[in-house]
Amino acid sequence: MASEEQVKNSTAPAVFNTDAANCLTKELRSTFLAGKTKSYEWRSSQLKSLLKMLDDSEKQICDALFSDLAKPEMEAYIHEIAMIKSSCKVALKKLKDWMKPEKAKTNLGTFPSSAEIVPEPLGVVLVISAWNYPLLLSVDPVIGAIAAGNAVVLKPSELAPAMSSLLAKLLGKYLDNSAIKVVEGAVNETSALLEQKWDKIFYTGNGRVARIVMAAAAKNLTPVVLELGGKSPVLVDSNIDLAVTSRRIVGGKWGTNNGQACVGPDYIITTKQYAPVLIDSLKHNLVKFFGEDPMNSPDISRIGHDRHFDRLKKLLDDDKISGKIIHGGQTDKSSLKIAPTIVLDAPEDSLIMSEEIFGPLLPIVTVEKIEDGIEFINTRPKPLAAYLFTNNKQLKEAFVSNVSAGGVVINDVTLHLMVDTLPFGGVGESGMGAYHGKFSFDAFSHKKAVLYRSFYGDAPARYPPYTPGKLRLLKALLDGSLFGIIRALFGFS
Amino acid sequence: MTDDHEIRRSVEELRLTFKSGKTRSGDWRKAQLRAILRLVHENEDTLFRLLELELGKHPVESYRDEVGVIKKSADHALACIDQWMSPKKGRLPLVFFPASRKVLSEPLGVVLIIGSWNFPITLTLDPLIGAISAGNTVVLKPSELSPNCASFLANVLPSYLDPKAVKVIEGGREVAHQLLEYKWDKIFFTGSPKVGKIVMAAAAKNLTPVTLELGGKCPVIFDSLPNSDLKVAVKRVASGKWGACAGQACIGIDYVIVEHKFASTLIEQLKKTIKIFYGDDVKNLKNHSKIINKNHFDRLRSFLEDPAVANCIVYGGSFDDTSLIIEPTILLDPPLDAAIMNEEIFGPLLPIITVDNIEESVEFVNSKPKPLALYAFTKNENFKKRILAETSSGSVTFNDTMIQFVCDDLPFGGVGQSGFGRYHGKYSFNTFSHEKAVLERSFYFELEPRHPPWSRFKLEFLRAAYNYNYVGMLLLCLGLKRVSKS
Predict the structure, then answer these.
(1) Is B250 designated active site?
(2) Which chain B residue has its CA at the smallest distance from A223's CA?
(3) Which of A169, A264, B19, B179 is deepest in the core (most CB within 10 A)?
(4) pLDDT of residue A370
(5) How far apart are CA A228 and CA A240, in angstroms?
(6) What is the mean pLDDT of residues B5-25?
């Protein structure tokens, strides 16, 4: 009879170490090499199953998001479920088009010939997701990977454990397990995965871990997409519709996972003169959206996890901003809640102005002239998004031309995420690569250049023995000049 | 040799130049492109002389593969740059109304281009054309293994291009390591996978995006062909192997796969072609480049040290130590576990691997890392489709070799071990740009249901909005559609 300990050990979950990671990638590689994931039928059937999964599991998803982040049902719906369904539908609708080879032009130098660019899957890819939008940021890249015909491993964030385990369960149930796998876990499991050779790694998260991911990728020459973050600034002019501006900012900051979004507004820049007007309006809308007691509002998410709460508390406790908190500031560790907080003119070297906040604290920086805001932004690392509110055409042009960011939105915030025809990605510290819509398909594809030549029209000028005449002809051929070619053939030029 | 102080000063100056906004203007970029055209035009003879000195390249080869390529590339960029620089606009679904969207290409900033020695002009100036067209400032690090061309670039470029925006930094491994310590907005590297890994690892420290143009064993799948096409096919194979820097080319042919019964026909025709193209006296080879240096010369010789490999030589095999010339050499079925069949050859040794049925070549190619280029000579349309669908490589060319390089509209780059990222034509511009998404909204028509406090009504409204169900949205607004209680 087996002892209690033996029974316990035999049912203990296996540790996901390097060997396990090795086995996993081997299995996926053999699925991929067998050609299973390449067909249109397979890809579209997986996408359809994914859509069904989302339709069937809305309640479970909302529950998991509430458990992980106290995310209000509406936010869960509009920012995660609806967006991911939309992404899936777009992929299903356009997949045939995306898979078609693209004709390429040929020139006189290769005449007669025809050329095309053929998309093909990269192979076996790794998607590492984040905790703040644990459904969207896991499944959206996976949609791209599947649409492009790859086998995929998804590593959801362990900091959103309810969603992580739900994804493992649902993807295991609805999708083809021989090609799509979920690996749950934390640092050890991620490290074991990063030791493997992938054909692409797609990482969403922070700059520190991104460096680790890219360094691991370098060992195998694996291309990466890094979707990071940064301090997304909002430049607010006085020439605006204040009511709409203020609603959009409050919604975009606190109504979007309570500030814990990579493209959420991080801080505001406005003129000294306009700041009081703006602040009043922001406060007004905060009450309108979340009531007089936002700590107990059901319409606002809580802080993701303990470590994150502590980090935000540290920003608030920073001596350098004492006396500058002009709204909010309440915290409650037991419920992981921090009230919507506004800080006015925090010093540049304060913690809140040096790191990405990723929470419900909103610094307001004041400048003399609104144009100074552009310079302020440009002395800092390039953010994932930059926002401007103004009716002033020149200011708009100056902002768009001179502010480098992943994406720019004028007179709104975060909305560009919902436009699947716009590439979504960072630049500099905010990341590299892009996705959404066709960009997701492209991110997980290799675009193979194909040239078809015939045996006719073989130009002797190409081959040795080389002569001055051949040189002339070659020059004309490369120039693409028909006239030049004729002249060369006749021995001129 | 450049010291670190000079590097630091150069990088700082480039950053200031970029910040000044000078490189953003189309006029500035076009002026630089025209300067590159003048540079190659006015120094054509010098370049021919240097390439002959460095690599023994014949002027025709130098024109075809270097001078002419740069000229064509700069001309193309000049013709297209306005279009490349203009924002790409597009429509938006009604639900966003009123709004507009566009994608704007903007320069990344200060970029580093590391060139290679085998095409020392093309592999520095062609990426440079891309970097400048995209509005960046540049450090160019030519390969120290082609020192004459490197010096030429260092001395001559400043008198043509804006010296505050484009700098050439010469040096070897140490200088390369020093350069890699700096924070770049992009690194463009052409070279070996081994060094590619070092470059990418260094780039990771600063989250610098990279393009790695590497190499691999580029195979030729040689199906049986009628006599009329055989001659042309073999000319193309010969020129794709020995006519491009004596095999020292990233897209140069590495090895050939052919059916057993067709091998001798192929080999005979290759021998004839070699004699016509290059002659058969290693001390007097014509139109054939030399090996870049003793190191590589010895490396190539060592492939043949194994008697099992040497016994497979069916043509050539002579090495001239003084001139560093290796004659075109053909090997028939060397052992598959020999180094020559597992490392990129990068020289004038051509293994021919025979199979029973040409269809087996697909499995053979797939047993090796993905190459930068795959060539297939066949008239069988089904076989072409199979090769395309079942192999993976940077590019595929049917019935020719090397020539895909001059197609401006085709992206040039690798996959897997042969690299990632691409360039040529507009891809050069894109590889040195950030595509910035821009969405502009107006203040009108604010969709109230976007914002908290949440309600069932807002949920239904947004559900309709996400499905672009405008009728549904309207009905809800007019109170004509009921909101579900669940």
Answers:
(1) yes
(2) B420
(3) A264
(4) 97
(5) 30
(6) 96
pTM: 0.95
Is A227 among the catalytic positions?
A: yes
- The one-letter amino acid code at B95 reads V
Tell me the per-residue pLDDT of B338-384, one tens digit each, with 9 for 90 and over.
999 999 999 999 999 999 999 999 999 999 999 999 999 999 999 99
| pLDDT score for A12 | 47
Residues of chain B contacting residue A203, judged by C-beta atoms under 8 Å apart: none
Which token pair is B174? 């140490």
- What pLDDT is stored for residue B379 in this prediction? 95
pLDDT in tens, B386-404: 999 999 999 999 999 999 9
| Candidates A75, A80, A262, A356; catalytic one | A262
pLDDT in the model for residue A492: 54
- When scoring B379, B417, B436, B448 by the number of chain A Cβ atoms within 10 A, the one with the most, hence best to mutate, is B436
Q: Out of B170, B213, B344, B460, which one is annotated catalytic? A: B213
**What is the SS3 string spanning chain B?**
CCCHHHHHHHHHHHHHHHHHCHHHCHHHHHHHHHHHHHHHHHCHHHHHHHHHHHHCCCHHHHHHHHHHHHHHHHHHHHHHHHHHHCCEEECCCHHHCCEEEEEEEEECCEEEEECCCCCCCHHHHHHHHHHHHCCCEEEEECCCCCHHHHHHHHHHHHHHCCCCCEEECCCCHHHHHHHHCCCCCEEEEECCHHHHHHHHHHHHCCCCCEEEECCCCCEEEECCCCHHHHHHHHHHHHHHHCCCHHHCCCCCCCEEEEEHHHHHHHHHHHHHHHHHHHCCCHHHCCCCCCCCCHHHHHHHHHHCCCHHHHCCEEECCCEECCCCEECCEEEECCCCCCHHHCCCCCCCEEEEEEECCCCHHHHHHHCCCCCCEEEEECCCHHHHHHHHHHCCCCEEEECCCCHHHHCCCCCECCCHHHEECCECCHHHHHHCEEEEEEEEECCCCCCHHHCCCCCHHHHHHHHHHHCCCHHHHHHHHCCCCCCCCC
Cβ-based neighbours of B383, under 8 Å, separated by 6 or more? B223, B358, B359, B376
Across the interface, do B205 and A86 touch by the CB < 8 Å criterion? no
Residues of A in contact with B232 (CB under 8 A): 455, 458
Q: Do A221 and B458 touch (CB under 8 A)?
A: no
ipTM: 0.95
Taking only the tens place, the pLDDT of each residue in B423-474 is: 999 999 999 999 999 999 998 877 767 888 888 888 888 888 877 788 888 8
